[in-house]
Specification:
The complex is a heterodimer of chains A (about 300) and B (about 350).
Chain A: H1 2-34, H2 65-99, H3 103-117, H4 121-133, E1 148-151, E2 154-157, E3 160-163, H5 164-191, H6 194-202, H7 207-237, H8 249-260, H9 263-298
Antiparallel strand pairs in A: 1-2, 2-3
Helix pairs in contact in A: 2-3, 2-5, 2-8, 3-5, 4-5, 5-7, 6-7, 7-9, 8-9
Chain B: H1 2-24, H2 28-35, E1 38-42, E2 45-46, E3 50-52, E4 58-59, H3 61-73, E5 80-84, H4 90-95, E6 101-102, H5 110-113, E7 120-122, E8 127-129, E9 131-136, E10 151-155, H6 159-170, E11 176-180, H7 183-191, E12 197-201, H8 202-209, E13 218-220, E14 228-230, E15 233-235, H9 239-257, H10 265-274, H11 279-284, H12 291-294, H13 301-309, H14 312-320
Parallel strand pairs in B: 1-5, 1-6, 10-11, 10-12
Antiparallel strand pairs in B: 2-3, 3-4, 7-15, 8-14, 9-12, 9-13
Helix pairs in contact in B: 3-9, 3-13, 9-13
Classes of the chains: A mainly alpha (about 300), B alpha/beta (about 350).
Chain lengths: ~300, ~350
Amino acid sequence: MKINQKIFLQFGICIILFCLIGILINNLTVNLIRTGLGFNFSWLFKPASFALAEHPLPYTSSDSYAWALFIGWLNSLKVIVSSLILATFLGTIIAFARTGKNSLLGLISAAYITIIRQTPLLLQLMFWYFVGFLGLKDNMFIHIKNIFNITNQGIDFSGLFFSSEFLALSLGLSIFTSAYIAEVIRGGIISVSRGQWEAFRSLGLSERKGLIRIILPQALPAIIPGLTSQYLNLAKNSTLAIAVGYSDIYAINDTIINQTGRAIECFIILLFSFLLLNLLITNTMEIINRLILNSQKHT
Amino acid sequence: MRRLVTGIVGLAALLAGCATTNQDNSSRLNLIKNRNELICGVSGKIPGFSFLKSDGSYQGLDVDICKAFAAAIVGDSEKIQYRPLTAAERFTAIKTGEIDLLSRNTTFTLSRDSSGGNGLTFAPVIFHDGQGLMVKKESKISSLKDLANKSICVGSGTTTEQNINDAFESAALPYTPIKYQDLNQVVAGYLQGRCSAMTSDRSQLAAARSGFKNPKEHIILDDVLSKEPLAPASDGQDQKLADAMRWVVFSLISAEEQGITKSNIDEKVLIAKDNPQLKPLRRFLGIDGGLGEKIGLSNDFVVKVISSTGNYGEIYDRHLGPNSEVPIPRGQNELYNKGGVHISPPFN
């Protein structure tokens, strides 16, 4: 009886879900026909006729919309990857400071996490961009001609130029995400039993060595899943680029929607580009996770 | 039995409801009248055109155009729901029916007007604008050429982006566009010195400059990069609403041509009623001819419009005139017989 009930319930839920999706799709097609917006992707190959400030590959305004979107995707990837690395690095340091024995460092890192987590990301990005980077004056800090130049246009490091927009977005995202990553890592470290700490201390290992060699490897399986979801959040938050003038895929999509009026097609493209980005992150993390678990099995 | 009766009555009511809504959907004009309220898409961020005042009311040229439409269609210029929209949201808002019409500094272009493009239809132009560039006086920049290899702050998702590109490309000058989502960010980027110049419609530049700490330290270059005829827009498939909008805008211009103002409209109505020989005036004010009915409005729609907003010249002076907060010389926005381009076809 109980099993029958369960099957019946699940069957019912399936039917309801199926109907709901059907209604949504029907609604979309009916309304697309009604408003004369029907699907069409041929505009993708027409010239974009807008310029881009940053493009990792050659781009001119006579290139196609498709190419402009791809450049935007690369710009997104660039900012996501660099923020990912910086956020992990910062987050790890803060987590160590938070769990360490030094109470001043612990207090500072706790304050950092609290402040960063309790203010909106958009506000932080605006702050880094409009107050931080655009406030930079020529000849501030170090200024070595042709090697290291800081202006409010960006930072030029011996020919390698990073724009203020990229730097503000990258730094803002890294700092915001690092606070969450620090908490994930701290959670992982705490999950390792106290006995392990006492064990390495009694063996005469230093705090730093013990943390890296003994505690962290045992904490990693608990850290990785939380870390993955923070990485995915970071990728999605990168769409706030438009607020600080960085041409990521969302900003370029915004322009294209306005020029072509193809909102639904553009959002579908956006959806799939983010799916691709996030699948990349998830799969890489999955591989790392498996490597860690395997290496632990062998030892 | 009783339940059955209520059921049938309910079903009948539901069907009747469906029937009437179907009928109403033939034109948005009827929908607006039944709702007794106009939903008007505006910007809400451009002083002089549509700006949210500290008391929560919207003001400006674009807003008064909404009011004129509301007076003509609903009979009350205050029965309006304003929807502040970004440049990117505005066309989807019309096509999905979220708003009845758009009065938001929108440039009239072929792709926006065509069924193969954005599928809108435009009312007559209410402000002839052109894209310009604003620079800091101290920068000594005086023309487009001086901006070669410089950064320029642009609002994303507008024709401005395309125009600046066309201008620089045809002059074979390299430049870097820094794109922001809305004008406030463009202004912030420009004032912080991220860009050597900011570009937008000249009216918007003037409006933005009026809010600067030292407006006199900024100059608008003489280069005009584009024609920007700004016009209200509605759904291209709704011919009835488009007709009504077209003639409401013309009535504002025609009233100025004939010297009919908010203060003398009642007097003019009396004169027209007493003098059967004043045929054009009688037709214009809806005493003869039944012109209003032909476009789905009441015959005296012109009287309702002028007595609530005044004629085009009065609206212009109120928001952009020399004594307003955002003075913009009338220039090409004068009537055709005073050196401008505004003209109304006859009300026959």
